[in-house]
Each structure stands twice: as structure tokens, then as C-alpha cells.
Amino acid sequence: MFWLLLGILYSFGYVTVGWLLRDQPIVLGWFRAAALVVPPMTGALVIVRRRHTWSGCQWLFWATIALGLAMSAIGLSGWAADELMFARDTWLAWPAVFALFGAVAPLFALLAQPHRGAREPLAATTAIDIAGLAVVTGFLYSFFVTTPDAGAGGAMSAQLKLVSELQQLLVVVAMFAATIVARQTPWRQTYRRLSLGALVGFATLTLSNIEIAPGLYRSGFVYDFTWILPFAFFPWAAASAPSSDASLADESQDEELSRPRPWVIFTAVALLPFLDFGLRHLIPDEASKSFRDLSTAVTLISVLPLLVARIAAERAELQQASSTMKLMAEVLEQARELIVVMTPEGRCRHANTAFCKAVGRSREELATLSPAELLAHETVTRDEIQTMARVGGGWRGTVMRTRKDGTAFPVSASIAPIVDAHGRPTHIVSVEQDITEERRLKEQLIHSERLSAVGQLVAGVAHEINNPLQAVMGFSELLINAETRPDVRADLEQIRADASRAAKIVHGLLLFARRETLERSVADLNDVARSTLALRSFDYRTRTITVLQEYSVDVPLVVANREQVQQIIVNLLLNAEHAVRSTGAAGTISIRTGQHDGGAFLEIADDGPGVPAGAAGRVFEPFFTTKPVGEGTGLGLSVSLGIAEAHGGSLVLVPSDRGARFRLTLPAASLAHAGASDDPIPAGARAD
H or E stretch including 652? Predict the structure, then answer.
């Protein structure tokens, strides 16, 4: 509002000084020449001062207006010079071209559409369009000022006044239309102020043109409001116009989809011959024919380079867009996520390399498959995809994808539609991640937690059973020693045997659940295996079981608790013995030691029926056994695994053509010492 008030005060001051100097024409002329330049140049200076706050098309908008203000200042100075130097009071002369250019500049500036954002990539092509319009407009104006004898009241003057009126009316309409279009943007107030300025300019211009016809117009008086008051609206609008901040720049990126086409400059070039032909018949003037020919030639020469520049700029933008698209395509191809683009019907439109590798199919194969052929279970059906595409929503969840070999794997999918400018879905994008490993780790964690809970339960139950069981064994021992009757003694011995068996089960449970510190020392795995096998040699001879022993001389020493390692070997030997006896024929048990990856290993194999395929993954679970009821506790292998892992080693079931083969691996003494900590390693600890 400050600038508007200043413009009003300046206008009244100008009129007052002009009235006081009415009897001094020379002084009045110089005063008018200086005073009329101030209003347009003030607006231009305000724009120049704020030039760093705008960018892209927003800066182009204000630059075009500033150029128009400078042209207006030149035109006003030219009129003043004509009065001072040549004593001409007509406005139909070369300054009129500059003044008309200044008046129409806001209309050209609207091509930049600053309310849609900075849109820096479009600034160059829009500037060329504005330049093309300016050249053609100058060509049009030249026809009205080339007649040497055109007077203020002649037909030429009337036509030029009509052009100026129509031009200013067009500016008013365009500015008010821009205000309506930008009513939801921060530029609404800027457009509104420029619209008011254009309206005031139209009113003052109309008043001046009306007074020119009867010869009442006089410079340095109230009629000069035409050249003063309207210019006050430009600094008012520019001083408070929105800046090209980062948020508006980000929002403007969507406008790349609606980039202007070169219709403006192509239309200008196409209209030049028709304008030339029509104006020559409308304003015939043989005296200035050569000048008009020159004007037409200069205009064509000026517009054609602009046309070439416009095409080059458009090509550069297309190349930049193409490089951006290639970059985005490369990003999609290099992404680890599985990305597939589908039609609204669910058919594959494009898939990145990761997706193709995951499903084992090429893009050509994927394009021929239906949605159901890529899903093991239709977690998202075709109807659901179409519904989601229609409403424009998204979907997140787990989908089972199918590979080419028929196997399936789970993926975590995030599905969203791509919509066009009218909100209609054109494609559906699914970004997926293979969660097979995550599921395995989750199941392993659940299994570990279950084993931990079982261990706590077993420890409590074993302690509760152990106390009364010891009493049963103690009293049965006393009764056996005191009993002389054979039949009663046999019953008591049976009680003692069953109690002993129960005590062994309880002992195994405690070993599975207990965490106790045991001493470890350097041991020879060959020696431990021989001494342990000696405990079972008699049973093997009586049961026609052949034992094959193969001890390597390169087996490194290990750091272990000898008794616990013996317990592992005994459990493996008992399992092998049971497997051989289950065949009902003579069998063989093999024991082999050796060196592997710097550690020592021991393998115990048998030629029994082997482990069933469905049970191979569960043999180390607590209480799982393949033996008949009453012949196994299901704790031997789980306890052995816990001991092996507590020693930093492993116990695995090795695939074998016949029977079962278990391999115990322990780290060498040097490796064990290097990885040992100051804290003792708990016995029976599990590494789940």
C-alpha cells in the first residue's frame, strides 16, 4: 500500500508543478522529461533489488515486466525529447512503439505462469516464446509509425489509438483471469495488484484518447496520469511478491508433465505473411513501402533464429529428460528390491533384474503369464488389484511368489497404483523383498525360545523326581540286602533296575538343562575314542557287531572336558548299536578321526536303516526319538549337541548312502585357547 500512496502523491505533485510551470514551456518540458521517467524506473529498480529472491519462470515473469517498464521509460523520454528539440506534440512517432511495448509486457510475462512454481527447466524455452511474440508485436507496431506525415488526428492516429485501447483491455482481462486461476496460490495478491494497475491504466488511457480527438490533450497536466499512476502498482506488487523458496520449487516439479509446446513462436512465424499482407491493404502507404519491406525482412530474420533456438532448447530438454529416465531405469535395475510394474488387470508390464532372477524367468516370459501363475497362493487376487487400482489406494502384506521350477518363496510386498492427470489408474507398482531368510531366523528364534522354556521345565521336573527316586533306590538296596527269599529278592531287583533306569533319565534331563562349570584340559581325540570304545567292546562281540576303526595320526589336540566328550561318543555309539540291532542281522559300526579346517573331527557311522528323510531335521530336538516307546528318552543327541557347541564345535548328521553318519567337530587346542574367554564355559550350553 505504501507504493500506491506514494504514486498518488507523486501524481498530485506532478500536476501541481505542471500547473505552476504552465507559462514556462521550456522548463515544463525538462521537468516533464525527468518526472515521467521516475514512475516506470521505480518499479524496475524494485524488481532488480529483489531479483535474487526469484528463480526460473518466476524470475522471467518479473524480468519481462522490468524490461517493459524500461521500454516505457524510453518511450516517455522520447516524447519529451520530441517536444523539447523538435517542438512536436504528436504522440504518433517512434516513442509510441516503446510505450506500447511497455504496456503489453505484463501480457507477455504471463506466459511464464509464475503461480505454478519456479520451473527452472522451462525458463529458457518460455523466454524464447516471449521474445518471438515481442518481435512480431514490434512488426505490427511499425506499420503505425512509418508514415512520415501521420498527424495526431489522422486515420493512422485513430487506428493506433484503437490498437492501444484493445491491447490494454487485453492486458486487463488476462490479469484478472490469472487472478482467478491463481486464487488458491500465494500469487493471488500479486496478480490482483497488477490487475488493478492494468485497470487504472486502461481508464486513464481511455480518458487521454478521448481528449486527444478534439485537441484538448495537453502534456504536463492531468492527462499525464496515464503515464504516472498505473506505474505505482508495479513496485507495490513486486515488493510483496512470493519468493521462489524450496517448497514451491519442489511442488513445481509436477509441472514438467505439462511443459509448454512451441506453438507460440510457430504461430508467430506462420502469421507474419498474413499480417504483412493484411496491414499493407489496411494501411496503404506507397511512400513508406521500402521501409515496410525492410521491417518485414528484419522481423523474419529475427524470428527465424528464435525458432531455431526454441527447437534447440526443446531438444536439450528432451535429452535431459531422456537422461533422467535412463538414470531412473538404471536405479530400478540396480535395486536389490524386487520391483514389478503391472497393468490394472494384474499382468506384468515390466520387472527389474532382481525380480526376474528371483522368479527365474525373463521379462518376455513374465509378460505372457497371468497373475495367478506368479502367486503360489492368491494373497492378492485379480479383483482386489482392480479394486485397489480404481480407488487409488495401496496394499501391504506378504505374498508367496512362484519360481519357474515350481517352488515358492515369501515376499513382503508394498503395492500402489500409478494414476494419470485425471486420477485414472494406468499401472500398478509392487516393491517386494524376499523374506525367506527372515522367516528362517524367526523360526529359529522361536525354536530357541521353546528349547529354553523346555530346559527350565525339565530342570524343575528332574529335581522334583530325583529326590523321591533316590529314596526308592536306597530303600530297595536295603531290602535286597536283607531279603533271603528268591522270589521277593527278584522283585526287589526289578524295582532297583527300573529305578536305576529312571535315575539315568533324570541325569540326562539335568545334563540337558543344567549350566555348570567343568574343568577342561588338552586331550587327544583318538585316545578318548579308543578308551570310550573299550567300554562297549564286550557288548559288540556278543552281539555280532563289527567295529571298524580308522584313527588319523594328524588329528590335532583339543581342549575339552574328557568326560563330556566321552558322553557324546557313548551316545553316538548307542544310537549306532540300536540301528544295527534293528535290522536283525550282523552289522558294522565305523569310527574315523581326522583333521578338517584346522580342527579335529570324529565320525561314527553304521549300516543300519538310517534316519528317515522326514526326521533328519529333528534328530537334535529334545525328546524326539525314532526308537520304540520305552527304549529311548530323546535326550541323547540334544545333550550331545549342547556339549559340542559349548566346546566351540559342532555335531551334525552327515548325508550317507547307507545308514546314519554323525560327525563331531572340535577346534584345535591353539584355536580353542585363542577364542577362549576368562569366564568358564557352561556344560550343556546350547547355541541356538
Answer: strand 650-654
